[in-house]
Amino acid sequence: MKGFVFHGPGQSAWEDVPDPDIKAPTDAIVQVGVVTICGTDLHILKGDVPEVRPGTVLGHEAVGVVVEIGGDVGTVRPGDRVLVSCISACGRCRYCREAMYGQCLGGGGWILGHLIDGTQAEYVRVPYADLSVHPLPGAMASQDAVLLADIFPTSYEVGVLNGQVRPGDTVVVVGAGPIGLAAIATARLFAPERIVAVDLAPTRLDAARRLGADAVALVGEDPEQLIADLTEGLGADVVIEAVGMPESFELCTRMVRPGGHVANVGVHGKPATLHLEDLWIKDVTITTGLVDTYSTPTLLRMATAGRLPTGDLVTHTFPLDRIEEAYDVFAGAADTGALKVVLGGELHELAVRAT
């Protein structure tokens, strides 16, 4: 089969790789139909995630068809169309019992495209399939469903729920990339008074308005003053950091009100300064987190009911064998306007491998 393989910083290729096999009775083999590219994949290609070994197939998000299962898998069977979650869960360790699947101690957590071969291939082995894949309703388009593998549960859990968004809140989302836009869409479910998006790119702020932001601000237009004006000097109730830069994190801590919440979602590669000389007296709650995907079944139901604008984030589509071009488009988002890049086609057009 073919897969997109990481060979070291700045080196990758779509090339022949071995077909995956069942290695444990809890595994499933999934024929990949639709995948997408995550900002974390770009970090890996830059060498920012040293745990990823050269020779690893990248990717941790997919929709596909189950073609083979281990003897202990009971929730899916060959022929089922499924969402492959970005997080794998053993279901038995202390963290899994607390629905903190991202911290799994039993060999799960974020492993696809990280510690083992991932989803950007024609087939993928998914460990702990009973908790790590989700059957999909027939009416849900694969292109929409694949966005529920990572960005929507990440934004919802690590941003909106950790930030404790409530009715009547002023919510600021710093960073209007895919994660920030999904945070805007899911924050709306809690009826805040207003949502404000902050970004460097006017095109992304336009997308933020389409997804439900009530106001937008370019970073260079003094967003701190805008928030002060909107809240009579109080500050935002919830500020969601969706960039992963020291400057954006520190901006968030300056815009939050006393007693408010800063929910960090961004992946940070550099230290950020925590200005406790200003924050110690303000009763501010700062949260961080890796997504656990415990909300995925709920998000799937909402998406099926038309409550989540998943497809609105997809700006580019490619066949799977043009993944190298797709990476270039996604990495050059400032020029291409890319938000989410989806590869592959509808699964009924695929021939399912005999089991």
UniProtKB/TrEMBL annotation:
Q: Which UniProt keywords apply?
A: Metal-binding, Oxidoreductase, Zinc
User: Start and end of every Enoyl reductase (ER) domain?
Assistant: 8-343
Named cofactor requirement(s): Zn(2+)
One short Pfam family name for this protein? ADH_zinc_N
Domain of life, per UniProt, equals Bacteria
Q: Say yes or no: keyword Metal-binding present.
A: yes
UniProt keyword Repeat present: no
Give the UniProt family note.
Belongs to the zinc-containing alcohol dehydrogenase family.
Q: What is this protein called?
A: Zinc-dependent alcohol dehydrogenase family protein
